[in-house]
Amino acid sequence: MSQTPYTMSSLTPLTQLWLAQWQEAGAPAARLQLQWLKTMDQIIESEAAFMLACLDANLRINECLLDPDRLAGKNPLNDCYQDIMNDVTEASLARLNKVSELSHDFRQQLWEEL
Q1: For the whole model, what pTM was predicted?
Q2: Is the residue at 57 inside a domain?
Q3: How far is CA 33 from CA 18, 44, 90, 100, 108, in A?
Q4: At what angle do helices 13-66 and 78-113 cross, to 10 degrees?
Q5: Strongest mean pLDDT among 37-46, 52-61, 101-110
Q6: Residue 94 located in a structural domain
Q7: Neighbour-count burial for 6-19, b at 16+ CB within 10 Å, e otherwise
Q8: Domain range holding 90?
């Protein structure tokens, strides 16, 4: 048994009115969900950037540990470690700033949608 799809012209005026109201009622929820998804996308992007910074720091530490010239120096790992930790600290602060901005932007977008 196949069902034929309903078209707007085949519906009664009362059904058309109900259908229009029903579709409009779902629109705010859909817009809120879209804003939430956009914010989640930005959070994931920010977290990925931080993870890349951590990966880069890990690779640089390994390079320092495997460099025989650096290990033979007076402060073998101190300078390398300090540089890497400065970069990780900057990435962490950038991550925290992005999270606080996203929280504010998300609240503002929610109020605009409401």
Answers
A1: 0.65
A2: yes
A3: 23, 16, 32, 20, 14
A4: 170
A5: 52-61
A6: yes
A7: eeeeeeeeeeeeee
A8: 39-113
